Amino acid sequence: MRTEGDLERFFERLAAKWHEVPASRLERTSTRVLVSATDEDALAAWERARADTSDGIRGLRLRGWFHAVYGPWAAGKKILEVGPGLGIDGVALACAGATMTFVDVSSTNLELVLRVFSLKGLGRPESLHLQRVRQLDELATDYDAVMAFGSLHHIPADTGRPEFEALARRLKPGGRFIMHAYPFQRWIDEGQLPFDRWGEKTDGAGTPWAEWYDADKLIEQLRPTVFASVLYCEYRDGAMNCIDLIKVDGVPGLQQPAAGASAIARAIDVAALSVQPGWRAVATVDGSGSVLVTTPEEPWAYAATVPVHVDRIPADHTRGVVRVRATVRGGRVGFGIPAGNGAAFVTEEYLARDRHEHEQECFLEFDLAANPAALMIVRNASPSAGRSQVVVHSLDLFSL
Ligand SMILES: C[S@@+](CC[C@H](N)C(=O)[O-])C[C@H]1O[C@@H](n2cnc3c(N)ncnc32)[C@H](O)[C@@H]1O
Question: Is the pLDDT of residue 38 over 80?
Fold first, then answer.
């Protein structure tokens, strides 16, 4: 169990390291030194760092691509950047028309960024020297985006969770959480070191921590605020990734299909999932009432079926939704409701195994006018021959 005290001590360790920030592709510079340089020298060093990582065809592969894609989007937006370093991205976003706020564990990083803003005539952005996580609650809650370029993956996920949660609360509904971190595959390729040792390898001596992230892991880390993935990409030959999430809480068009619908009690009994004669599949109930389904090897082969009491949907309702909660152990599975005449599926959704093997959700939506059969089918949706396996935890019917 981590405490706020652990988090504050980790902020101190991060501050002790991270006044040394990336200056060019290969070099780091200390803002503790840079803040005592003359305006002219500080700006010249800053400009060299900016040009080396942003300009031309070479720069496109580092920061340039992000400025090209997100610069036009940033105009008029209110952006909270966590860990700006020298502020190269923050200045680019401000020049594109964003109003910036900067949060950093290092006071000299912030001092330098504010000085560069002033020297460039960009005004005085809001800033926060982060020493205690509660300070984040002093910031507004109407940001369009939180951006963290190479910062938040340098804190252990469990220790840093309150920081992630507090940042998520700063976003308005529909706001974006955009984090640049290290990809899972890089961690594999570099020997799967414990994260307290990997940091020294990725970022040099004294780096307390480096951890991989992907979209699923970041979505988990930001709970209880609910996010969905907008974009995931890797760049710098797989050394970095960009994870762009949207805060779905409070956005009417992004609510789950079952939100606001009426639940129909006991319309589907998970334990009744069973294999039909001739299907080369297995379905077994475990101690918690979930059912483990192992599909046949052939793509699209049927594995199990369960009755769905569509007849219990009130007469004045026109649509049904089945919520599936399941953990995919291997491959990819489809959940579908066929038409009453068996000719086709009126609705089908797919779940694939992800690297965390965590519980997932999908929603089967259908019009009653499409004459759905009173049953759901689970089948193998893996494109390559091979069995898929899924633990089905719950199946719930809703109508509206
Ligand atoms: C590797 S540097 C990246 C700097 C800059 N974003 C860039 O792309 O060059 C990490 C930055 O994040 C800050 N930082 C690291 N961990 C942080 C945390 N948990 N919260 C806030 N700032 C953090 C550091 O002080 C530093 O400014």
Answer: yes
- Range 246-270 average pLDDT: 91
Name residues whose C-beta falls within 8 Å of residue 111's C-beta, 6 or more positions apart in sequence: 31, 35
Helix axes 88-95, 107-119, angle to 10 degrees: 40
Collapsed DSSP state (helix, strand, coil) of residue 133:
helix
Among all chains, which residue has been given the structure tokens 């070191």?
A: 193
Does residue 334 line the site of ligand 1, with CB under 6 A?
Answer: no
Q: Tell me: the pLDDT tens digits for 110-139?
A: 999 999 999 999 999 999 999 999 999 999
CA of 46 to the centre of ligand 1 (A): 16
Residue type, 367: D
Tokens representing residue 146 in the block: 């939180």
- Residue closest by Cα to atom 21 of ligand 1: 104
Q: Is 326 in the pocket of ligand 1 (CB under 6 A)?
A: no
Instruction: Please work out whether the CB of residue 87 comes within 6 Å of at least one atom of ligand 1.
Output: no
327 in contact with ligand 1, CB cutoff 6 A: no
The DSSP symbol for 63 reads I
> Would you state the pLDDT for residue 1?
59
Tokens in use for 333? 């599975």
Cα–Cα distance list, 388 to 7, 283, 301, 325 (Å): 41, 12, 10, 16
Angle, CA 38 vertex, CA 34 and CA 43 arms, to 5°: 70
Closest residue by CA, ligand 1 atom 1: 150
Mean pLDDT of the chain: 95
Structural domains in the chain, CATH included, are 4-254 (3.40.50.150), 262-399 (2.60.120.430)
The pTM assigned to this predicted structure is 0.87
Of ligand 1's atoms, which has the minimum distance to the CA of residue 109? Answer: 27
| Residues 300, 317: Cα–Cα separation, whole Å | 32
- Convert the pLDDT of each residue in 176-216 to its tens digit: 999 999 999 999 999 999 999 999 999 999 999 999 999 99
Pocket of ligand 1, candidates 54, 67, 88, 104: which has the most ligand atoms within 8 Å of its Cβ, to mutate?
104
- 103 in ligand 1 pocket by Cβ < 6 Å? yes
CA of 104 to the centre of ligand 1 (A): 7
- Edge-first strand listing for the sheet containing 375-380: 302-307, 375-380, 332-338, 345-352
104 lines ligand 1 (CB under 6 A): yes
